[in-house]
Amino acid sequence: MDGIINVRKEKGFTSFDVVAKLRGILKMKKIGHTGTLDPDAEGVLPVCIGKATRVCDLLTDKDKVYEAVMLLGKETDTQDMTGTILKESEVNLSIEEVKQCIESFVGEYAQIPPMYSALKVNGKKLYELAREGKTVERKSRKVQIHGIRILEMNLPHVRMEVDCSKGTYIRTLCHDIGEKLQVGGCMEELERTKVGRFLKEDAVTLDEVRQKMEQGEGAELFTPLDQIFAELPAVTVTDAKAWMSYNGNDLPERFLLEKEAWTDGQEVRVYDSRKNFIGLYQY
Predict the structure, then answer these.
(1) Quick one: average pLDDT of 237-252?
(2) What is the 3-state composition of the chain as percent helix, strand, coil, each rounded to the nearest 5?
(3) Contact status, residue 46 vs residue 5, Cβ threshold 8 Å
(4) 249 Cβ contact list (under 8 Å, min separation 6)
């Protein structure tokens, strides 16, 4: 059982809960998730099983798509509805004003991570410090908002789809939009609908994973490791030199069966003659 399962995380579970429950269902220890989702959030959580845990970091780097409900006129210490309300304001704004403000966040912007997050400062998670009543300085980080699509606007609520880079906090985006509009804002609901090639409509719940395993159909759940990198060219190493790639050694170009005009930095999927996926190489 090596591969990735596209799990649909349900509300109330932490990402760690999902991993712990899968360990019990699959009877495996080597399992890792690819990016934390808040307990109250739901949606796509690709989980790496067996040898696929080696690509957890690569999947965490993938762009993500979220569907969120932003509530204007309310600011909380967690930047979502689970926190303590710090400020409330009347929302006397036009739809056009709100629309223009939201659209102004498309592109690169400097985002300050929230105190209630799993980021570490001096070895301690920010949310642990926040629960102790401490606030520490956080450096802003550049994030990329590829696009925001407003799905529904019924002020003070706005439902929107956000396509963004890794490391983007949608809670903080809602907070920052509210701050720019001078009324405050927080996130009311969040669903992750896409991580890289993994889509909401293909995701399975933990109960569905359990049922498939009990029915002996568990293999259907796994996305093979090499499919994650399907956009990269595939090359085959000669049988005589396959051992070099099994051991992760540099692989001279002359030992590949495919002859291409490679460009500097080009990544490829390497296979042996029996079509076993060995790993990723970079020219």
Answers:
(1) 88
(2) 30, 35, 35
(3) yes
(4) none
Q: Is there a catalytic annotation at residue 38? A: yes
Q: Are 178 and 72 in contact (CB under 8 A)?
A: yes
d(CA 173, CA 36): 17
Q: What is the pLDDT of residues 77-93, one digit of tens each?
A: 999 999 999 999 999 99
H-helix or E-strand spanning residue 198: strand 198-199
pLDDT for residue 194 is more than 80: yes
Residue of 22, 270, 81, 68 lying closest to 168 (CA atoms): 68
- Whole-structure pTM value: 0.88
Which helix (H) or strand (E) covers residue 86, if one does?
A: strand 85-88
Q: Tell me the β-bridge partners of 70.
A: 158, 187
- The token pair at 180 is 């720019």
Burial 63-93 (b: 16+ CB within 10 A, else e): ebbbbbbbbbbbbbbbbbbebeeeeebebeb
Q: Is 110 exposed, middle or buried (0-12, 13-18, 19+ CB in 10 A)?
A: exposed
Q: Are 72 and 81 in contact (CB under 8 A)?
A: no
**CA dist., res. 232 & res. 97, Å (int):** 43
Q: What is the rounded distance in angstroms from the CA atom of residue 73 to the CA atom of residue 184? A: 5
- Split at pLDDT 50, 70, 90, the class of 25 is very high
Mean pLDDT of the chain: 91
* Token pair in block for residue 117: 């997050």
Which is more confidently placed, 38 or 193? Answer: 193
Q: Which of 2, 38, 202, 250 is catalytic?
A: 38
**Which of 28-32, 183-187, 247-251 is most confident?**
183-187
CB 163 within 8 A of CB 195: no
